[in-house]
Amino acid sequence: MKKIIIISIILVSSIIISILLFNEFRGNNELYTENDISMVARTKDKSFQIYKDGRFETTFLKGVNMGSAIPGTFPGELAITKEMYLEWFGLIQEMNADVIRVYTTMMPHFYEALYEFNETVKKPLYIMQGVWLNEESIKDINDAYALNGQLQTDLINDGKDLVDIIHGNASLEAQVGFASGEYTYDVSKYVIGWIIGVEWSPNFVLNTNINNPTMSNFQGSYLQTTEEASPFEAFLAAVGNEIIDYEVEQYQFMRPLSFVNWPTTDHLTHPNEPDDMEDLVGVNMNHINKTPAYTAGYFASFHIYPYYPEFMNYSTIYRDYIDHRGELNAYQGYLKDLIDNLDMPVIVAEFGVPASRGKTHEDINQGFNQGFLSETEQGEIVSHMFEDIYVSDYAGAMVFTWQDEWFKRTWNTMDFDLPHRRPFWSNIQTNEQYFGLLAFDPGQEERIRYVDGDLSDWEEDTPVYQDDDLEIYTAYDERYMYIHIKSDTINLLDNQLLIPMSTIDNQGNDNIRNTDITFSHDADFYIHIQGRDYAEVFVDAYYDKFYYLYHETLELLEKNPSYTNKNTGIFNSIYQALSAELHLPETNTIIPFMKHNTGLLTHGNGHPMDETYNSLSDYYMTSHSVEIQIPWLMLNITDPSTKMRLADLYANDWFTSESVNQIFIGASIIENGQANYIEMTSDTWNSWERPTYHIRLKESYYIIKDTFSTYDD
Question: Where are the domains of the chain?
């Protein structure tokens, strides 16, 4: 009996010892450990691998980027709550995503929420942790080695702080605009990689290289540069090596690492790029290599969009590329060219298109435009691009972005609003605010009005104007001015409707030139509607901000002296600039100035719960009513929350804002051959300090959810 017991003890002990030895070499179900260094992920050849169930699995990373702002706040306020994160993590996992990429240090409750969420699910969400470098500092210093390496030191210190943070061992003092607090939750097993830096300015890279010609060599314990490396590439290698070394020394842990890059500073040559800055200098990821000691591995991260830089449109190689579908596909053409010229795994760390009304750039090859896309189009295009990335042998793709960002600006609208008030209203004309899959819609639970033909949300309202034939109603929220025109006596579909409006005093037109139409109050805008097939907003030529900026001030387009006079009766279409005139050097081609008529209105159902919903809908018309939603910026309102408008364009040196106390509005049926005098009445709205909003998953969310589900590894 004793022998049996002894044998049993020996067998059990042997099993335990074997397990311990196995775990020492192979890790447990969550971590792989070798030579006393633990890992949760690694790279192999051109693939990314995550340690799951006792082995490394090659995984195509399906991810989404996440910002740090909500309406009414700037990113530096880090106002997202733990409860929001927990809710969002659930929605992201339901979308079949594996990874969330964050750009910088988050508040402690972000990591707490991640830990708690992953403890309750079978399949964890992983994090790609960014290490941010202040872009204002980059602009001011413009040299990675200047001021005794201040930028390098800042980046390394932030990286080391983040190492401590993800291991639950950090305390950051409060600083305005930065995360702070006690970090006590160890989430290191959920952080699968570092993505260091920002989209590098070509001037910054070039200036670093010119000023520091002897700094091109770096040989670290984990990263090193090749003989062909530039001083800027050596700067990156040094930063990355310090972060890896710190985590190994302090926590016996390492994870894959990469640096942000984008087509502007890729190492490829683009001979048909019209802007010298976009092909000025390259950052070659091949010039940074991992040493044998860096077993977690090194990968490349690129932000790649289909419409920018211009070579994405005009490359003679990319535009003729035939994809796996047998279709012309410039986007996949670039993807293949890039990955064929890189020696490590590559992740597209940002890609996407915005579901915005405003438009900033066109993809002339496939229509994957920067703006003026519906939520459905957004989902379909992102899914198309995701497939392009997947079949091009990349290691992962991360959609930009999870939530809409009201604080953002865009180059073709940024001069027309107040920067310090951007987060407090929803500027649907600024495409950068609408890349999200999750929308922040005005209103605590729903919007105050929807253009959908259901007039029940207007029933309690009193008309601001009425006569024998028409009644005018208005409403306002953080995104739109709403107008409802009602008639019990006239079939509006069979007639033309004209709605004059005024937002600024002491200017405007008292008539429409070459017509018999006159107004009781000088009008700055009017809306012309001809049934469901045509509607457009026009602006007084004198108050036309597009004309003032691109014709008069920048002199990129021909001038018309009559537009600089008041009360000419001239109204212009409302445009957004897309690009200046371009000269394509390889083909010696001139591309004229490109613009988009943003004043054209789209008919359709604007209610998200309706099966015919179109997020680009501007108006909905029936026989006896029309509902219209007009973006604030289209009316030259620079901040509706504090009731500010563009002042007289020609009375100031640049765009200036001033208070607006009231607007005037009228409406009339326009009959051919008949003189028309349109009465206008005053109206106003209430200002607000903090916006109201509620979250809504866009149509694109559900489309991408289906797409991600078909690419499970």
Answer: 58-437+704-709, 449-691
Length of the chain as a residue count: 713
The rounded radius of gyration (Å) of the Cα atoms in the chain is 29
Q: Which CATH architecture has domain 58-437+704-709?
A: Alpha-Beta Barrel (3.20)
Distance of alpha carbon 29 from the chain centroid: 36
Contact status, residue 526 vs residue 667, Cβ threshold 8 Å: no
**Averaged pLDDT for residues 27-39:** 84
**Residue 331 reports pLDDT greater than 50:** yes
Query: At residue 315, what are phi and psi to the nearest 5 degrees?
Result: -60, 130
Q: Is pTM, for the whole model, over 0.90?
A: yes
* Distance between CA atoms of residues 521 and 511, nearest Å: 9
DSSP 452-514: SS-GGGGTTPPPSEE-SS-EEEEEE-SSEEEEEEE-SSS-GGGSEEEEEEE-SSS-SEEE-TT
Kindly provide the residue ranges of all beta strands, DSSP E only, lying in 230-334, ordered along the sequence: 257-261, 288-290, 300-303
Per the structure block, which two tokens stand in for 646? 């563009």
pLDDT over 80 (residue 545): yes
Residue 1 pLDDT grade (very low, low, confident, very high; cuts 50, 70, 90): very low
- For 90-161, where are the E strands, in sequence order? 99-102, 126-131
Distance CA 129, CA 192 (A): 8
| Residue 430 structure tokens | 């600024």
* 187/167 Cα distance (integer angstroms): 6
Close Cβ partners of 27 (under 8 Å, ≥ 6 residues apart): 33, 34, 38, 39, 51, 54
Q: Kindly state the helix (H) or strand (E) to which residue 244 belongs, with its residue range.
A: helix 231-251
CB 600 within 8 A of CB 535: yes
Count the Cβ atoms, other than its own, within 10 Å of residue 29. 10
Q: Is the pLDDT of residue 396 over 70?
A: yes
> Are 705 and 713 within 8 A, CB to CB?
no
Amino acid at 407: F
